[in-house]
Amino acid sequence: MIAERDTEVVIDPQVVVLEDDPELRSLLLRGLREEGFQVMTAGSAGELLALLPGKQPDALVVDVGLPDADGRDVVQALRAQGTAAPVIFLTARDALPDRLAGFAAGGDDYLTKPFAFAELVARLHALIRRGGADLSAQVGELRLDPGSHAATCGGAVAELTPTEFRILARLAAKPGDAVRRRQLVEAGWPHGAIVHDNTLDVYIARLRRKLASLPGAPELATVHGVGYSLR
Ligand code: CA
Predict the structure, then answer these.
(1) Handedness of CA 63, 68, 72, 77 (dihedral sign)
(2) I need a surface site. Which of 1, 26, 112, 185 has the fewest CB within 10 A?
């Protein structure tokens, strides 16, 4: 079902739920479907990683405490593979506030269990609106290959480090939009490392050189007072 809302065309947004508690998982599946989302669920990190290839979800709901992994590491792995969809983390009540803040990175969000279902729905709508519809890591002819951390354009290939790849993928997720320096630091160093201002500058300079070596690649422009934009 397609509906016109403001200027954008909205197709039922697709949400992936990663939650190991079977009761909560089926409650989220039913509830989110009733709210008009397309929903896929997984009960473990392994199940999710098997489910995702070829899918372009609009948002993910990820439990942090999983039997086979930490939900934050799962999301970091997905980010490194070029998944730009926003994430709502579900966390236990006793998680420390500073740790919560640390992984509310890259425009993501978190909810502490137990949470009100309506709150989850409201946050999902807000994140999906902010995230926009185009989450593919491709800008013009530029393609990002998460497997090899390579950027290709105009028949040429630039090898990127994992950090360079994550920063470029963050920019490529919103082509033309200014992305804040803080958001790029959170994307590049998802474990909350202390990153000095000039470290990001060094990575941006390297990315510019690598993009410049690709014929027809977009430019990494400085947006003064804000951050950077790929266009
Ligand atoms: Ca759990």
Answers:
(1) negative
(2) 1
